């Protein structure tokens, strides 16, 4: 099967170049595109806070940009790495010359909260449910949930944008249920809404906090990539092994109180990888919704995932 890059046209590539018009000239300043400052990027925050990147001679800059633009900027060579999740996977599956070399989370950091009278999925029949947007990662998760349970409640799905807007719609009664992530899932719980679905407990694979890079970059800048992955691995290990030290990092980065940071940490850690890698079985599960046959699933996974650096440092 031939995979082609779809939708990556010259005009949009020029837009990506305009957003980040220069690459790091000296190989020490590293730009990493992230879709948002969220818990998914906690290994990056910890590595910066603990000085792991500086210790490797790297000045790492986390640049917030949409997943679509970050894919284009990565392909165009305007950034060194991207932290895109589902969008990055799809770009790679469609033929973009990129590979996923590090993963922080395998479980979706999302929850479906509903009005207190809605206690089962079947109770969503005829109700309004808020997601990010049509074709977005959150809508994808909702569809995966319904597919997994072979269930169609006949509900109305509304694309309302970011989590804060979706939570506000739940509060106001404009919707009956909403897909939420940190910190709004905690706020919804404290406000008395019902946790209808906890995605970290579901058998649904969604990769986030990734490190994606161009194949040619990994070949021509292997030493730089090694330093970046090694530092990020140290950040991941610090987060997993030091709860008390990680809570202030979460509080500062996400701009939340430390008691809320503690709740976020405790909910998030079970969804984290142990060493920045995932098994071949999980790799195939991660791409299965985007390919047609089992043969395609295996060949795409083998081409897209390259955890050689992470595996090297996890053993050291």
Structural description of this entry:
- This protein has 316 residues and is an alpha/beta fold.
- It has two domains: 10-107 and 206-314, Periplasmic binding protein-like II (D-Maltodextrin-Binding Protein, domain 2, 3-Layer(aba) Sandwich); 111-201, Periplasmic binding protein-like II (D-Maltodextrin-Binding Protein, domain 2).
- The protein is 46% helix and 14% strand.
- It has 15 helices and ten strands.
- The strands form three sheets. Strands 7-6-8-5-9 form a five-stranded mixed sheet, sandwiched between helices.
- Helix 1 crosses helix 4 and helix 2 (42-49) packs across helix 10.
- The two termini are 38 Å apart.
- The relative contact order is 0.17.
- Residues 1-27 have low confidence and may be disordered.
In short:
The chain has 316 residues and is an alpha/beta fold.
Mean model confidence by pLDDT:
87
CATH level-two architecture of the largest domain: 3-Layer(aba) Sandwich
Our estimate of the beta-strand percent is 5-15%
Q: What's the alpha carbon Rg, rounded to whole Å?
A: 19 Å
Q: What sort of overall outline do the alpha carbons produce when their principal axes are compared?
A: globular
Number of helices: 15
Compute the number of structural domains.
2
Largest sheet: spatial strand order: 7-6-8-5-9
Uncertain residue segments: 1-27
CATH class of the largest domain: Alpha Beta
Helix content: 40-55%
Q: Given the helix and strand composition, which structural class is it? A: alpha/beta
- Main sheet specs: 5 strands, mixed
CATH topology of the largest domain: D-Maltodextrin-Binding Protein, domain 2
């Amino acid at each position: 099967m031939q995979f082609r890059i779809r939708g990556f046209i010259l005009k949009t590539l020029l837009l990506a170049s305009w957003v980040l018009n220069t690459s790091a000239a000296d190989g020490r300043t590293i730009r990493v595109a992230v879709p948002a400052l969220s818990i998914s990027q906690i290994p990056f925050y910890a590595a910066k806070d603990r000085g792991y990147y500086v210790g490797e001679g790297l000045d790492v800059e986390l640049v917030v940009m949409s997943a679509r633009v970050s894919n284009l900027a990565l392909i165009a060579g305007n950034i060194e790495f991207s932290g895109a999740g589902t969008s990055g996977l799809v770009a790679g599956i469609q033929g973009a010359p990129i590979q996923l070399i590090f993963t922080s989370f395998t479980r979706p950091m999302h929850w479906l909260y509903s009005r207190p009278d809605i206690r089962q999925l079947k109770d969503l029949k005829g109700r309004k449910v808020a997601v990010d947007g049509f074709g977005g990662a959150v809508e994808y998760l909702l569809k995966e949930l319904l597919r997994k349970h072979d269930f169609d409640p006949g509900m109305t799905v509304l694309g309302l944008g970011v989590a804060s807007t979706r939570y506000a719609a739940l509060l106001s009664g404009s919707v009956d249920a909403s897909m939420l992530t940190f910190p709004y899932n905690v706020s919804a719980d404290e406000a008395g809404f019902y946790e209808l679905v906890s995605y970290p407990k579901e058998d649904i694979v969604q990769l986030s906090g990734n490190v994606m890079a161009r194949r040619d970059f990994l070949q021509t800048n292997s030493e730089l990539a090694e330093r970046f992955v090694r530092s990020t691995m140290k950040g991941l290990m610090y987060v997993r092994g030091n709860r008390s030290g990680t809570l202030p990092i979460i509080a500062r980065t996400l701009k939340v109180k430390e008691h809320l940071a503690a709740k976020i940490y405790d909910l998030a850690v079970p969804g984290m990888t142990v060493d920045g890698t995932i098994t071949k079985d999980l790799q195939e599960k991660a791409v299965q919704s985007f390919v047609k046959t089992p043969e395609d699933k295996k060949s795409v996974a083998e081409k897209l995932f390259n955890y050689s650096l992470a595996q090297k440092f996890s053993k050291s």
